[in-house]
Amino acid sequence: MSEPEIVELDEIDCRFEPRPWVFAEDNREAIAAHWQEVIARKPASFNGKILLLHRWEVSGRRFRGAYLMTDYASFLAWRDFGTPGEPKWNCFAMAALQAADGAFLLGEMAEHTSNAGAIYFAAGTPDPSDLDGDTVNLAGSVTRELEEETGVSPTDVAIASGWTAVFHGPRIAMMKTVRSSLPSTALKARIEGFLAADSEPELSRMHVVRSPGDLIADRMPPFQRAYLLHRLAQAPSEGECLSGA
Asked: Residues 69, 125, 55, CA angle at the centre, nearest 5°?
């Protein structure tokens, strides 16, 4: 797989355009068998509906795309089988949480999750709750996932106006900067207090990244590392457009 590609965007326009997914229809037995293996390892796994990108284009600084709906078992099998068939993409939004001192905070996935031990920003594959009519609301997904996973609400952060897209094979990570007024030490303590109060949190702990030396290569996926290196190499921008949510 080639190196991740980073593209700065001003706007994302994604729609729900339902259609059959040939992979899911032609591999029902293999998908069912794979799902039994998944729940044997992770009994808390839930086979809900998710959205999968089936077409996209970038024009200037605008991304347009369309999603179909499938179930999580089919998506997971497709991912674990090496993403066979006609191209599809797992296009998801991530809350690039940044503290007042410039450090980034990432979560470590809990043991009961399918990606246990992986470290990245709060995120989730889009699902029906992200639909606003036929619009796939990735901006709403950012704030929803951030609050669900960390307890940080939209009113606790300033939200950047644009996006940073990271393309890497069948993954497209749409990064949205969300900036806290708290320094990283206080923000980490606050989030870990929230996690401790949850009987089954999605995250087990938080990691602070202040410099490239804080990256953990074997547990941060390439797209996540590429984004962090990109941001850490940038000088702070006084003109960055942020808005209160």
From this structure: 55
Residue 119 lies in a domain: yes
> Which pLDDT tens digit goes with each residue over 78-97?
999 999 999 999 999 999 99
Residue 66 tokens, joined: 């369309």
pLDDT in tens, 170-229: 999 999 999 999 999 999 999 999 999 999 999 999 999 999 999 999 999 999 999 999
Which CATH number characterizes residue 71's domain? 3.90.79.10
Cβ contacts of 232 within 8 Å, gap of 6 or more: 209, 211, 212
The one-character DSSP state at 97 is E
For residue 229, being part of any structural domain is answered with: yes
Q: Which residues pair with 209 in a beta bridge?
A: 104
Handedness of CA 188, 191, 194, 199 (dihedral sign): negative
User: 177 and 13 in contact (C-beta within 8 Å)?
Assistant: no
Q: Are 118 and 219 in contact (CB under 8 A)?
A: yes
Assigned domain for 77 exists: yes
Instruction: For residue 125, count other CB atoms closer than 10 A to its CB.
Output: 19
Structural domain of 15: 5-233
Q: 238 in a domain, yes or no?
A: no
pTM for this model (two decimals): 0.91
Q: What type of residue sits at position 83?
A: T
Domain count, the chain: 1
Q: CB of 124 within 8 A of CB of 173?
A: no
Residue 144 CB neighbours (<10 A): 19
Residue 13, beta-bridge partner list = 64
